[in-house]
Structure formats: C-alpha cells, structure tokens
Inverse folding.
C-alpha cells in the first residue's frame, strides 16, 4: 500500500474537486498505474509560494505520505475534448515546484494523475 499525497493548484480549486485524480488513484490507473495499491493520504493546495509548497511537502511526509503527485491540469489542458501538453497547463513553474517538493521531502514527486495526454508517461 503506497500512501499518496496530492498538491493541487489554487487556480482549479473552485472548478474541480479532484474527481479524476481521486478515481485514478483509487483504481491505480493513469498516473498511478505503477503502484500495486494506493491510498490517498492528504491533499494540499499550492498558492504559487514555493516556500509554502516545500513546507506542504514536509507535512505530507510527516503524515506518512510516500509519494506526492501534482495533477495533470498543472501541465496539460483540455482542447477540443482531449487533454494535450500543447499550450501547457495551470502552472508556469512546474519544474521549480516539483524540484522544491522533492528537495524538501525527499519523496518522489510525480507529474500526473488523471487523463494523461496521449503519449505522456510520468517519470516516477
Ligand atoms: S487533473 Fe483533472 S481531475 Fe485532477 S484536479 Fe486537474 S482537472 Fe481535476
């Protein structure tokens, strides 16, 4: 059983209740298909402050989280009904964000949760 934490983006917090993320996490599909069993152990919302994000990562680790994922909507967008990497997503500092999360927590930080764009394979 791998305990997963998600750090989502504030830009989407009033539009999406993480339905796809949580469904895929529970079914070990899409961004979670490398795990045998998973449990959602916590969710934080990033508000574009990298120090806060680093602190959130530390707290997730202290709560027992073993891997942190950032949602697909941070780097992809839905165009004509399909999720695509072209045009990017909600976060314009994604690499900085995920690097800070990894450095602060020592945990893997995976880019991707639900509805992965065609051909995109998350690095674990
Ligand atoms: S990846 Fe999809 S399901 Fe998850 S928060 Fe973004 S829009 Fe919602």
């Amino acid at each position: 059983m791998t305990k997963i934490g998600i750090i989502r983006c504030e830009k989407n917090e009033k539009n999406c209740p993480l339905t796809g993320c949580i469904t895929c996490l529970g079914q070990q599909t899409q961004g979670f298909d490398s795990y045998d069993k998973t449990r959602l152990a916590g969710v934080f919302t990033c508000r574009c402050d990298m120090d806060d994000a680093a602190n959130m990562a530390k707290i997730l680790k202290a709560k027992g989280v073993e891997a942190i994922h950032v949602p697909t909507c941070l780097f992809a967008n839905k165009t004509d009904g399909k999720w695509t990497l072209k045009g990017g997503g909600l976060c314009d500092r994604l690499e900085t964000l995920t690097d800070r999360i990894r450095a602060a927590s020592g945990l893997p930080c995976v880019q991707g949760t639900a509805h992965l764009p065609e051909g995109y394979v998350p690095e674990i």
